[in-house]
Amino acid sequence: MLYNLYHWRHLFSPLNLFQYITFRSGGAFLTSLTICLLTGSVFVQIVRSLAISQAIRDYGPKTHLKKAGTPTMGGLLILFSLLVSTLLWARLDNRFIWLILVSSVYLGALGFIDDSQKFLFNHPKGIAPNTKMFWQMIWALGVAAYLYTDPPNSVYQTAVNVPYLKDVFLHLGGFYIAFVLVVIIGSSNAVNLTDGLDGLASGTLLVSAMTYAILAYLAGNIKFSSYLRIVPVPGAGEITVFLAGMAGACLGFLWFNSHPAEIFMGDTGSLFLGGTIGLIALCTKQELLLLVVGGIFVAEALSVLIQVTSFRLFHKRIFRMTPLHHHFELGGPPRVQSDDPVLDCRGRPGLGGGHLPQSPLVSLSRRWIKNKRALVVGLGKSGLAAAGLLLKLGARVSLSDKRPRASLAEELRQLPPDLPLETGSHSWLSKKKFDFAVVGPGIPWELPELRAARRRGLPVWNEMGLALDLVQPRRIAAITGTNGKTTTTALLTEMMKYDGDPCVTAGNIGTPLASVVNRVHSQTTLILEVSSYQLEGLRNFNPLVGCLLNITPDHLQRHKTMDRYADIKFSLFRHQGPEDWAVLNADDPRCRRLAGLCAGRVLWLSSRRELPGQAYANREHLVLDNATPPVKLPLPRHLLGPHNIFNALAAAGAAAALGARPSAIARALLQFRGVDHRCQVVGKIRGVLYVNDSKSTNVDSTLVALEAFEHPLFLILGGQHKGSPYTPLAPLLRGRVKKIFLIGEAAPLIRKDLGGTVPMEPAGDLENAVRRARDSARPGDVVLLSPACASFDQFRNFEHRGEVFKELVHSLR
């Protein structure tokens, strides 16, 4: 349009500038850049007010969940700026300009429809891939027909120039039509795949536009093209004006799209920008150079192709996740899988790097699961929840449990009767073909059959990992540690509820995450109690707030060494970023090993000393000294023992990191009454207090329970041995415990370790122990069930043991 001012140069000589492509290219660049910069903020506000936001896909990296709600369809801003600048500054009698403009509008409209499907019609995936490909192919066929009948250079009608080699061409003949389809559709979708990281697509497109602008200018100039021996293309120089406008638009959009992105371009932008770059490569006869100029786009597309092909043919993954930028987000180059934990380490040193090899990383989605053959290993509470979830998602579920079928009657009543079931072993992991497996937390991650399956490339999740891949919460807080997890998790939940936060609590607290997947939405705060059994099988887990309470000997029969056990606990923080929180126990020597290793912000906790600038407890308050001004909170009103003071401090620190108001935290501290099976008062009968501490499944947990009481105690100890000695109990037993009643298979070991400290009496089972304790106790005494052992020798779990204890106590009334 403005080019026509050149015809008035005789009236005003400076108008002569409008005939020059370089001048008009500069004008197009500045015009599109200015439009983007001046209208971008308003556009973002309009899109945000219309609730047109990015749908974060449930199979992408969890770090991307923080981007949920970011406005999208920024491609409209790019397209508008580009159309205006081109119509103003380009010669509108140039056939390439109109071909490229029509292509931009067509593919932009296709992308707009795709994006609209996501937020207007609640289709998170947009247009079906086959439908999108069909309409791309329709356009590409039209372009191919046009370029075949009216080629940019008739001498090289179906020839493709080989870059860096002078006068070397590939003559495709009739195959040129197919080649055009591959270039246009491939480049369009390659840019679409790249648009998954802040600024990546727009920044790369900026470089590509500037490069092809130079090539187009050279191809359109007969002198330069002859001198450089590149294919001359009459009229191609005018494409420079369009590309300059594209560069300006991408640069302006990058202002709003760089990290942290205020808006995404969406398919509206990526489809048309990619397709247009491919079309320009065809028009300038520099098709193969696109592999170099758009190298990042090519790498992204190839990574997906390689990943899919490898999995379909060999059931193995080459990359951690695709497209390629996801692979590097999740830890960089592929690691060597080995049985040696040193060779197999990943992540930062000291943060859980010594795990056994993980199974191939597959990006789970609800669509992917449908009709897949899934094996659920272990039919405990978590395994049942995983099986139920997979059935709802349309998977073909099989079951495996080492227990005999007769002992699984209660579990099998919760599932359809016709599901294939293996009992007595887990041989199906090696003998039958499945698409993936899900294991309950009670299944050792180093079970030989499971290790062999992972080596063969079978994707394996644990129950929590499966559920995490299928939810998109607003944020996640995770609590782990040897002792105090359940109390801290429950108290943190109360704090967040009093703050008005919609939260869902799950995990080791007794509610499998797989059973509450449908309750987790984009505004949910997900609070997880995570045991070492669950952490062992998780990958790429990065909670916004991670809390490690303590590390003392536990589960050594499974983890073998304390170093390995601690390493698994440390893995909670392995994938955290600089905006995340690590809430750590400054009084625990193993927790202090994390100093300087966490990538995020750290809040240290102490219930023994003041920590300036951190969080601590004194005799009167819990103090969050990291706040400005420092926050003083009341001590918990209804929790027994010094260990619960620390648990309350940890919950308060985590709640503050999540943004809870101090008044809500204080209210929860005053009203929270504890959790079942953890120093839970069952009742007072004839002056004797009965306390259920069935959750004390290790020696250290029983130690803190003993410290909570000053009254004379009758202690019930025993159950399934977990590998740790019982001798640390001896100092507290003397002068505090009148008699120990021994139950379960660990009774001989306890008698051996603690013989001579206090009187001990073998009771065999819990019923006998309660009855004998009743006969021995006098008013003012306490009968405490705090077993220091697992429950599986006589009970389903510690909850079952605690419920039986409560029933036995109530029967004494």
Note down, in words, how this protein is organized.
Helices cover about 40% and strands about 15% of the residues. The strands form 4 sheets. The protein has a 9-stranded mixed sheet with strand order 9-10-8-11-12-13-14-15-16, covered by helices on one side.
What are the defining features of this structure?
nine-stranded mixed β-sheet; alpha/beta; 42% helix; 813 residues
Radius of gyration: 33 Å
The helix tally amounts to 29
Proportion of residues in helical segments: 40-55%
Mean pLDDT: 85
- How widely separated are the two ends? 97 Å
- Main β-sheet, spatial strand arrangement: 9-10-8-11-12-13-14-15-16
Condensed summary:
It is built from 29 helices and 22 strands. It is an alpha/beta fold.
Q: Topology, please?
A:
Elements: H1 21-49, H2 75-89, H3 95-120, H4 129-149, E1 159-161, E2 169-171, H5 176-194, H6 200-220, H7 222-228, H8 239-257, H9 266-283, H10 290-293, H11 295-314, H12 324-329, H13 366-369, E3 373-377, H14 381-392, E4 396-401, H15 409-412, E5 421-423, H16 428-431, E6 436-439, H17 448-455, E7 460-462, H18 463-468, E8 475-480, H19 485-498, E9 503-507, E10 525-529, H20 532-535, E11 545-548, H21 556-559, H22 562-570, E12 581-585, E13 601-606, E14 615-617, E15 621-624, E16 631-634, H23 642-657, H24 662-671, E17 680-685, E18 688-692, H25 699-707, E19 713-718, H26 730-733, E20 737-743, H27 747-754, E21 760-764, H28 766-776, E22 782-785, H29 798-810
Parallel strand pairs: 3-4, 3-6, 4-5, 6-7, 8-10, 8-11, 9-10, 11-12, 12-13, 13-14, 18-22, 19-20, 19-22, 20-21
Antiparallel strand pairs: 1-2, 14-15, 15-16, 17-18
